[in-house]
Design goal:
- By secondary structure, the protein is an alpha+beta fold.
- The protein has 12 helices and 14 strands.
- The protein has helices spanning about 10-20, 35-40, 55-60, 75-80, 85-90, 90-95, 105, 110-115, 125-130, 230-235, 240-255, 265-290; strands at about 5, 25-30, 50, 60-65, 70, 135-140, 140-145, 150-155, 155-160, 165-170, 180-185, 195-205, 210-220, 225.
- The strands form 4 sheets. It has a 5-stranded antiparallel beta sheet with strand order 4-5-10-6-7. A 4-stranded antiparallel beta sheet has the order 11-12-13-14, sandwiched between helices.
- Strand 13 (about 210-220) and strand 14 form a beta hairpin.
- The termini are far apart.
């Protein structure tokens, strides 16, 4: 591996200043589970690794003014999964984050790193999309926000500019009669890259009989995780029935753009998109109605 400089600023302002100075030659080290491997293999050649784990805004989980949560981009998955408010308010996020690697990886890997690495098969991204997460970004020209679903621009590529970093992910507070769920498929436990994954968030009427709205997101079925927009929009006003769920699952699968590779065929992935959409919708509906699922 080539020689790499290391810096660990203690403030967000100092990190942003370094990114501005080293424009294009610095890479963020949040957990390091991706960037270290990529640098060792020569797939990325950063001149500077900028460790952000000493910056409070990136390492905290705090309640937002609207009652939602703000999760620092460098919060390890293990700490996220052990956080009571996350488990209570956003179980779908725990279902996704809890699958990112084994025990050692969980203690290092972060949601922010998983999102910025922009793998088409990343587990956290469909869950963040289904929950309506928003990225808080800081750079030399100031701060901006971006929906989590717009962060990935291609395989391994994200929307951050050279002088920017992801500070936190903001999750809106759950509304009444709403819930989400996540599931993935892998052929065996040892192969922990999804052949397909899916998350769905739904909001039901007060009597639980009608869908008010929904968001369905799929991973590993396109060059980036994708929001099944037509399927999501079609939920509004539909009765909460198995036939509706089946119809929407078919629409979600139709939005998939899978490829065939060593982990699965395009036909298998399209089939899985339908099956997983149905499963997560059923579980989200059960949760929204107050059932344990």
């Amino acid at each position: 591996m080539h020689q790499i400089e290391y810096a660990a600023p203690g403030t967000l302002a100092a990190a942003v200043a370094l990114l501005g100075e080293r424009r294009g030659s610095a890479s963020i080290l949040a957990g390091g589970t991706d960037i270290i491997v990529q640098a060792r293999e020569g797939r990325r050649r950063p001149a500077l690794l900028l460790d952000v784990k000493k910056i409070p805004e990136l390492t905290s989980i705090r309640t937002a003014a609207d009652g939602g949560l703000i999760i620092g981009a460098a919060v390890p998955c293990a700490r996220l999964c052990a956080h009571g408010d996350v488990a209570r308010l956003y179980p779908a996020l725990i279902e996704a984050a809890g699958l990112i690697g084994g025990t050692a990886i969980q203690s290092r890997a972060s949601l922010g790193g998983n999102l910025c690495n922009a793998s088409p098969a990343a587990d956290s991204i469909p869950a963040l999309m289904a929950l309506g997460a928003v990225c808080e970004i800081a750079g030399a020209t100031g701060t901006r926000e971006l929906p989590a679903g717009e962060m990935c621009t291609g395989p391994g590529a994200n929307a951050l500019r050279e002088d920017e970093l992801l500070v936190a992910l903001r999750l809106p507070p759950p509304v009444a009669n709403s819930a989400a769920a996540f599931e993935r498929f892998t052929p065996r436990n040892e192969m922990d890259i999804a052949v397909c994954n899916c998350a769905a968030g739904v909001t039901l009427s007060a009597d639980g009989a009608t869908f008010i709205s929904g968001r369905i997101a799929l991973g590993a079925v396109g060059p980036t995780p994708l929001l099944a927009e037509e399927a999501s929009a079609a939920l509004a006003g539909k009765p909460v029935t198995s036939s509706t769920i089946k119809q929407i699952a078919g629409m979600a699968a139709a939005a998939a753009r899978p490829i065939t590779d060593m982990r699965g065929s395009a036909a298998q992935r399209r089939h899985l998109a339908e099956v997983l959409t149905r499963r997560v919708m059923e579980r989200a509906v059960a949760r929204a109605k107050g059932a344990q699922a």
